[in-house]
């Protein structure tokens, strides 16, 4: 919705704020904060710094919400201190989500439910704030029931939707970071031991292969004993080669299993 120069705040339908916030995983609220601070700054005749205020929105919300509640008519807001409720709840919600996410980092289902629940609660809080804002709008300048998104709002909504909801399948059906690290560590330990064996066998094969080639050049084929000895040593050298190649194949198999396990719960 196009803002007039006299507007004190960024006016939007409360339902639009609620819907756009949920669908974008709250990413839309970055734009919401930016527009609120920019509009407030212009209306107060100050040089707005909306970007900085938006980055620290969890704390600047206290200042913004206080301005909103002070501007609201008494018939809408009887207690001007109520602005603390959405500001504190939003801050506490962020802290709780962060702490619980760390504690339950291994439980992806808890992470998904927690994230979605936080998105819905936060969206509801800002929808409430928007309803208070709309009560301050001059008559005939704001249609509260009209759902309308400008181009930047649509961009934030689409980007947030793609980023947030594309992570849900990954969290539900892919292993947790902790599981991936454990599987990777196990792979490295196992292949580390096999790799050392491969090096030893490769060195032994290289040495025996050189020895066999040198002996073949001077081999007396008329001497049965020399030929039998040569054939036995050749067989032993080929056994070393088979063992080396077997370990190499085992490492390749483990690598394939690791890659497959990264996509299995």
Write up what this structure looks like.
Helix content is about 75%, strand content about 0%. It is built from 9 helices and no strands. Helix 1 packs antiparallel against helix 6 (about 110-135), helix 2 (about 30-45) runs antiparallel to helix 7 and helix 8 (about 175-215) packs antiparallel against helix 9 (about 225-260). The protein starts with 13 loop residues before the first helix and ends with a helix.
Write the layout of secondary structure elements.
Layout: H1 14-23, H2 28-43, H3 50-55, H4 57-71, H5 84-103, H6 108-134, H7 151-173, H8 177-217, H9 224-261
Helix pairs in contact: 1-6, 2-7, 4-5, 5-6, 8-9
Give structural attributes.
265 residues; mainly alpha; 74% helix
Helix-strand makeup class = mainly alpha
Alpha plus pi helix count: 9
Write down the secondary-structure element order. HHHHHHHHH
Mean pLDDT, to the nearest integer, reads 84
Unreliable spans are: none
The largest sheet, given as strand count, sense and whether it forms a barrel, is: none
| Helical residues, percent | over 70%
State which percent range the strand residues make up.
under 5%
- Whole-number radius of gyration? 34 Å
Shape: rod-shaped
Task: Write a short abstract of this structure.
This protein has 9 helices and no strands. By secondary structure, the protein is mainly α.
